[in-house]
Design a protein that fits this description.
It is globular, with a radius of gyration of 17 Å. The strands form two sheets. Strands 1-10-7-4-2-3 form a six-stranded parallel beta sheet, with helices on both faces. Helices cover about 40% and strands about 20% of the residues. The protein has about 210 residues and is an alpha/beta fold. β5 and β6 form a beta hairpin. The protein has a single domain, classed as Rossmann fold, CATH 3.40.50.10420. The site of iron/sulfur cluster (SF4) has 15 residues, from α7 and α8. The site of iron/sulfur cluster has 15 residues, from α7 and α8.
Length: about 210
């Protein structure tokens, strides 16, 4: 990428970090994925139990090998072989873990975190419960405003996730949202964190790299 384009993205990232801080979140800028990786591991050192949301951003960072060698209790519901009841138990335990790792569907330049969930466990854990929540967002998640954030979710994040999860949904077939009434619909709970919730402890890493969707 050209230096000038990288600079443009950097300004967007820095503005978003400032806005998040103004909104009460702890927030930091990471120049690249490696910096983000290091900061996540720093946070992980202080935690015994770590909950991981299903996230392509976290997948891309390939955190699991290092977290496993650190001997942490890792709460993941996407491990093969788990029964629905076991997955549900993990979702509930994530609500009270020491550190909840997640990304966000979108983050606005004004410093709002915008997410749409099918079950609500992820947005629940982001809002209240874990001792600390660490949100990792690539520059591709930054949007001009709330309207653009919601548009991004319905036009990119949800269709891509629906396809990743092999859902029988219109958006997984055509790539376009039809505001479906499918029983498998993954857009059910829309949560906008305008400010950091009053009893939460949320840190957001804004990374100058495209990560996840
Ligand atoms: S509302 Fe339905 S079609 Fe639209 S993005 Fe969500 S799951 Fe896909």
């Amino acid at each position: 990428m050209s230096e000038n384009l990288n600079w443009c993205y950097e300004q967007k990232c820095l503005k978003t970090v400032k806005s998040l801080q103004r909104n009460g979140f702890e927030a930091a800028y990471c120049t690249d994925k490696e910096k983000a990786y290091g900061k996540i591991l720093e946070e992980a050192r202080n935690a015994n139990s770590i909950g991981l949301a299903g996230s392509m951003t976290l997948e891309e960072l390939q955190l699991m090998p290092e977290l496993m060698t650190m001997g942490k209790e890792l709460l993941r519901r996407d491990l093969p072989g788990l029964t629905p009841n076991e997955q549900d138990a993990i979702r509930r335990r994530q609500l009270t873990c020491d550190l909840f790792l997640t990304s966000t569907n979108a983050v606005t330049l004004a410093g709002q975190l915008v997410n749409v969930d099918g079950i609500g466990n992820r947005v629940g854990a982001m809002t209240f419960g874990p001792n600390k929540v660490l949100v990792v967002a690539g520059r591709n998640k930054i949007t001009e405003d709330l309207h653009a954030a919601l548009k991004r979710i319905k036009s990119i994040a949800a269709p891509a996730n629906a396809r990743r999860l092999n859902k029988s949904l219109p958006c997984a077939i055509t790539g376009f949202c039809t505001d479906c009434d499918s029983p498998e619909r993954i857009c059910r709970a829309t949560v906008i964190l305008d400010r950091m919730p009053s009893l939460s402890n949320i840190k957001v890493l804004i990374v100058n790299a495209d990560m996840g969707y």
